[in-house]
Amino acid sequence: MKKRTKALLAWAAVLTMGVSVLASCGNKTASGDSAAAGENKAEGKTALSLAIWDEKQRPMMESLVEAYEKEHPDVTVEVQLTPYKGGEYWTKLEAAATGGKAPDVFWLNVLHTDSYVDGGILADLTDAIAKSDIKDNFPESLVNNYVRDGKNYAVPKDFDTNALWYNKEIFDKAGVSYPTNDMTYEDLVAKAEELKKAGLPDGVYPFACPVDFQTWYYQTVFANGGWILSEDKKTSGYDDPKTQGGIQCWIDMIDKGLSPSSAALSETSSDAMFEGGQLAMNFAGSYMVPEYAGNDTIKDKIDCVELPSFNGIETNCINGLGYAVYEGSKNKEAATDLAIWLSSKEAMDIQGNAGVVISARNESQELFAKSSDKYDLSVYTAHTDKAYPLPVCKNAAELYDMESKALQKAYSGEESLSDACKALKVEADAFLAKNQ
To answer: Which of 144, 268, 269, 424 has the greatest count of CB atoms below 10 A from its CB?
Structure first.
């Protein structure tokens, strides 16, 4: 297994790309080196480690650990926090796995699943999941996110979708009515044009159109009948006019001056601009809710609605995290038990009530919406049954990076979208051929 794991490090830098795109009780929280815990001789307990990357979820994870340890007094769990930014989490995890000392349980996203399966890092949880109630109580698409060759390598933790946020103060000063849940893409453009015509302050834009796949153009690509990957993962759909139509709609808004330029959005993210009062409207994943709600500058000025439909189709992309178990864990049975428990209604309710992410368990999803009396967060779960899963393949992060670089040329006007996509398809198909 170590031999296969070492192969991961050759392409580890690729996997550190960030996509949109989130510590145990008391003094047991750690941010140092990960380690397979083994037996805690001092306390006579089985010691497990649990790796996460989101500071905003630390208090919630502490609550989960506290509840688990209360039910399992013979086990102690140390939560290890490593930031996601800059790929630090993945780099550290891969290095620890190479040394045989990865955390017993760790957060996993779908982008890294294929490569980590190939690297021998992930324990097979198929039997444990079959004995649980997971398949009956979780969306099938989220469970299948971590299934490869009939084997399941992670337990669904949460999921994220997207919504349209707006700054009421900017709308009020412009004398423009607020966005609504039943808007279409055409309504969005009209609303943005109305704001521009009303005259916004210098440096303030109606909307933003960054080169962002999950939160922006994948949704309209799919709603337009386009596609990114074939079912067999052997070809890409960048040359399909329907795919390009779902991307061109955002470039059109930049060209009309309804959004900052792609260069400006490369320097300052749309989220940062929205929080700085520079955008009247912005798309944002559910993972941004805690940050928006905690921003004293805008939290009382903003609200959210469902994403606009496109071609009469409710658009949204769904993605999420899972709990994986390290194949080399010295306490793999106990680690598996922890991962399965984290899918329980008790655990998912604790997570849902925290209001930081949407719990993957069906009966716990509504708790995210109920966690705020300020915003209608049900917009994030309104059409999850129709949401499109992210297209993934082996080394998917590398494909997304390739895609982003190519489309940046079209967004900036350096190339036409048709030319950028034509070149991208050649590069992407060659990449897919190497990653079967």
So the answer is: 424
Question: Which pair of tokens denotes residue 209?
Answer: 């159109």
Residue 387's pLDDT is 86
- Sign for the CA dihedral angle at 170, 176, 180, 183 comes to negative
Q: Look at residues 249, 248, 225 and name the one whose alpha carbon lies nearest to residue 237.
A: 225
What span, in angstroms and rounded, lies between the C-alpha atoms of 403 and 74? 48
CB atoms within 10 A of CB 322: 28
The burial of 401, by beta-carbon neighbours within 10 Å (0-12 exposed, 13-18 middle, 19 or more buried), is given as: middle
pLDDT by residue (tens digit) across 116-136? 998 999 999 999 999 999 999
Percent of the chain at pLDDT > 90 equals 77
- Give 340-394 as a DSSP string: HHTTSHHHHHHHHHHTSSEESSGGGTHHHHHT-SSS-GGGGTTTGGGPEEPP--T
In this structure, what token pair is assigned to residue 372?
Answer: 């705020």
- Distant-in-sequence, close-in-space partners of 119: CB < 8 Å, separation ≥ 6: 4, 5, 7, 8, 94, 97
Q: Which residues of 51-74 are buried (b: 16+ CB within 10 A; e: fewer)?
A: bbbbeebbebbbbbbebbbeebee
Q: pLDDT value at position 43? A: 64
pLDDT (0 to 100) of residue 385: 77
Please name the residues in contact with 182: beta carbons below 8 A apart, sequence gap of 6 or more. 306
The first and second tokens of residue 169, run together, are: 């103060």
Q: Give the pairing of strands 75-81 and 358-359.
A: unpaired
Cα–Cα distance, 153 to 108 (Å, whole number): 10
pLDDT tens-place string over residues 390-433 = 888 888 888 999 999 999 999 999 999 999 999 999 999 999 99
Q: Which residues of the chain have pLDDT under 70?
A: 1-43
> For residues 239 and 419, what is the distance between their CA atoms, to the nearest angstrom?
9
Residue 49 and residue 107: Cα distance in Å, rounded? 12
Q: In one letter, which amino acid is 409? A: K
pTM of the model: 0.83
Distances in Å between the alpha carbon of 248 and those of 12, 218, 242?
32, 12, 10
